[in-house]
Amino acid sequence: MSQETQRPVGIVGAGVMGAGIAQCVAQAGHPVVVVDPSREALDGARRRVADGLRLSRLLHGSRGGTAPAPGTDPAALIRWTTDYGDLDTAWFVVECGPERTDVKERIFEQLDKACPEDTVFATNTSAIPVDRLAARTRRPGQVLGMHFMNPAPLKDTVEVVRGPRTGEAALRQAERLLELTGKKGIHVSDGPGFVTNRVLMLTCNEAAQVVQEGTADARTVDRIFRDCFGHPMGPLETGDLIGWDVIVDTLHVLREHTGDPKFTPCDLLVGMVERGETGRKAGRGFFTHTAAGARGGAR
Ligand SMILES: NC(=O)c1ccc[n+]([C@@H]2O[C@H](COP(=O)([O-])OP(=O)(O)OC[C@H]3O[C@@H](n4cnc5c(N)ncnc54)[C@H](O)[C@@H]3O)[C@@H](O)[C@H]2O)c1
User: Where is the 3-hydroxyacyl-CoA dehydrogenase NAD binding domain (predicted)?
Assistant: First the structure.
């Protein structure tokens, strides 16, 4: 067993994405340390991973990811902690904290202090330029973006972002993590929103604006994308899955880093987030959702 297979992968942030990525790594039989300052978030993530592993066993790994080996318990490979110091042996860390530039900058400063010199850091940011976060460390050559898709256990492709200072060795370590979790990477250069969210965030915002203006209701907007364009999901169902709080934060980041007012979130979205109607994780966004994932009435 190589040194890397004994050393854990660190995940910072135990929200929707952190839990999903932790599940992917543990399912591959590899140890994981998940850090979050919120005990409530850690408990929620533990439950989400347990549900995800049950689903994965039912699907026998047929929809992406590695199926847990029979008789093994991937959940036992995950250590849940509030202490960054527990990352002291991690060979690779995926940062999944909130989409706020100042919060992520502080996280990277903490990671730089807590982790060994050779640890590679990947940010799962939706839009913050990788080099902005790399600048908060003494190892900018060991920082890159790995933008996993949601739900991480079911999506086999990751947008890999190479910052202007990201080195070849860091990219090779990222490739190891992808191989381990049965995923492939598509490589892009650094910039606000990279490719995915430079385009998707505007689409989600405009779809909400169309509802706000009364041109069509949410169900009709999404039906246009499914029936006319053949998309598997419309932009409003996609936004419910991502979380409108994450989308509003990402639009602010895009506006901050491009200076372009086209990334201003529409009033309808801002109001929904203020009321806690953030989508699937809250049970209500443009659609209503049950714990089993069923979709109900639209706005
Ligand atoms: N939700 C998606 O579909 C999606 C997809 C791809 C990328 N992303 C990106 O992934 C990141 C996480 O998104 P999410 O949807 O999981 O968000 P989330 O709000 O579900 O989770 C964020 C977590 O970070 C924790 N946190 C707060 N401060 C922290 C700190 N200082 N150190 C460690 N953890 C801290 C919070 O307690 C919370 O558990 C964001 O950058 C987001 O833009 C989200």
Answer: 9-190
